Amino acid sequence: MKATELLELKLLEPAMGAAAFHNEMINQLAEAYLTYRQKELNKRVAPDLFKEELQKVKAYIATNNTYGVDLNPTAIELGKLSLWLNVIHKDMETPFFSNRLAVGNAVVGAWLKVYKEKDLLEETEGVKDAKGNQKRVPMKKEWWETAPRQLEFTPNKEYDKIKHKRKADEIYHFLLPDKNMVPSAGIKMLKAEYDTESKAVTKWRKDFCEPIKKSELEQLRKICNKVDELLAEFYRFQRSINLQTANRHNIFGALKNSEQAAIDLRSYDEKERLADQRNRHNAPYFKLKMVMDYWCSLWFWDVRDAKDLPNRQQYWQDIAEILELDTEKLAVGSKQLADSKELTVNSKQLAVDSVQLSLAMEPDELAVGSKQLTEELQTDNSKLFTDTVVEYANRKDLFDNNQRLAMISQLANKYFFFHPQLEFLDVFWERGGFDLIAGNPPWLKFTFEEKGIIAEKFPEVEIKSVTAPQVRLLQAEFLKDEKLKDLYYDEMVGTECIAVFMNAGQNYPLLKGQQTNLYKCVLENGFSLLSKNGFMGLLHPEGVYDDPNGQPLRKEMYSRLRYHFQFQNAFNLFAEVAHREKYGVQIYSGIKSEISFYSINNLFHPSTIDGCFIHDGNGICGGIKVKGD
After folding, report:
1. Is the pTM of this model over 0.90?
2. Most exposed among 30, 82, 187, 203, judged by the fewest C-beta atoms under 10 Å?
3. What angle do CA 491, 494, 495 make, to 5 degrees?
C-alpha cells in the first residue's frame, strides 16, 4: 500500500457521540501518512512545519473520509466541533462534513438485501387427504424466517452502472411483508383496550403475508428495477454534490500548489444548501429513503391506527407513486436550467475537485488525471441531472393526496430510521464498504421502564422503596390522565416495536433467539458495512462468547476475529460500569477465514497490550498476580 492510499480509507463510527474514536483514527492515519510519505519521496518536512502539515492531513481525512451516525442530534453537532478542534490549522476554512455525519438510529432501518423469487412465489403441492386421495394445497411460504442475501458492491467509479450483483430473480426485502410487523397489536394492555383494532391487525397480517402471486411478482420486478435505476441516479447526484462542496486542502506529497490555486471556494451556506438538495421530495435519495421508511413504519405502526394500515396492493401502489419520475417534465426542466447559474460549476473546476478527492496518485499523475476527468465531465450529464431533479422537486409534494405517506414521514422523524447503504451509498459504490470501523456502541437492553414513566407524576417510585402493589395503584392513578396515558402507551409501543424489530429473523438473523442488546445489533450490522479489505474494532461486553443462544453470531465472529483483549474494570476506566465487570476490545476482519486470533485476558489497562507484544518470547510473559508468588 502506498502512503497516498491511506488518504483514501473511509472511516465509520456507528454510534459516534463526541467523535472520540473518529479523532483517534484520524490522528493515527495522518501520522502514518506523513511517516511513510517522507520515506517514499526521500524528502523530509521541515521540523518547524511538521505540526502544520500534520494538521492539514488530518483536516483532509476528517472532511472527506469520516462518516458517522448517532441518534442524538446534539451529539452530531458536538462531534463536528470536536473534529474541527482536532484538525484546525492556519488559514483553514470552516470544515464542511456534508451528509457524512448523520442523525439516525444505527440499528433500525432497511438494507440492500434480497430474497429469491422462488421463496416468495405462490405454489401448490400434492398431499393425501384423510381418505388417501391426492389433492393440491398451497405451499407454506415464510421467507421472513430466513436471512435475506446481503448485496455486495464491486468497487467502481462508473456513474451509471450499479455493481451490487442483484440477480433478475431477486426481490428487495424492504418491499416484502413480514408476519412480525405491527407488534404493538400484541401488547396486552392495548389488546384489552383496543380489541377491535387488535383483531383487525391480525386479519391484516394474514392477508398481507400471503405468498406472492405471479401478477404481483411482475409488479415487484418493475419496482426493483426502478430502485436500481434510482440508486445509480442518486450516486451521480451525491458525487456531484460532493465535488461541489469539497474543502480546499494542500497536503504534503499529494497535491501541487498550482492545482489548489484553481479551486474556487464556496461559502459554508452555499455548501449546506447544495447538500440539502437530496432531501427534496423528488430527488432520488428522498424517494428511496421514503420507500425504506415505509417498510420500517410497518414495524412501528401503532395498533390504535389500525384503520390506516395499507393492504398489500395499496402498499405497492404507494411505493410505485413514490418512485415515479415524470421524464417529460424533467426534459422541460433540463432545457430551462441549461443556462442557470444557480448551481452551475465549471467542468474544469469539477475536475480539480475530483482529483482533490482522489489522492491515491503520485503528484506527477495529477495533471494527467485532471485532464482526463475534465474531458469525461464535459460529456457527462450528471450535473444537468442534479439541477433538473432539484428544480422538479420544488414543484411536487408527495404528501398532498396520501395521508399514509404523511404518517410514514412522522414515524420516520419519531424513530430516526437509518438506512446505511443508502445514506453512505458512495462508500459502497466506490470501495465496497468501509475500510475502518471503530466505536463503543451502547450496552443497552431494550425494556419498558414503567417506573421511569410513572415518575413523571409520582417521583417517589424512583426515589423511594415502593412495593409492586403500590406501583400498580399509582399506575391506575397515572392512567386516568389522558395525556399521561398517551405518553405511557407511546413509550410502551416504541419499546415493544424496536425489540421485535431487532429480534426479527430477516433483520438480525445472527441474533435470533437472543436477548436484545444494542451493541449486538451494531456488531452484526458492522459485518455488512465492512469492505473486504476493511477492519472493525469494537469495545463491547463479553456476553456474546457464552450466550447459550449465540452460536450463529459466534460462528460469524470467530471467522472474522483477529484480536481479542479482555478487560476487567479494576481501574474504573468506565465509571458507570461495575468494578468487576468484564468487557473486551475486538478487532474483526472484513473477510472470513479459518479461526485464528490473538487473545489476551484479564487486562486492567490498555498499555499492557503493547507490553505483551514487545515481549521477546524468552521466559513467561507476566500475568495475574498469584498470592504467595
Report:
1. no
2. 203
3. 85
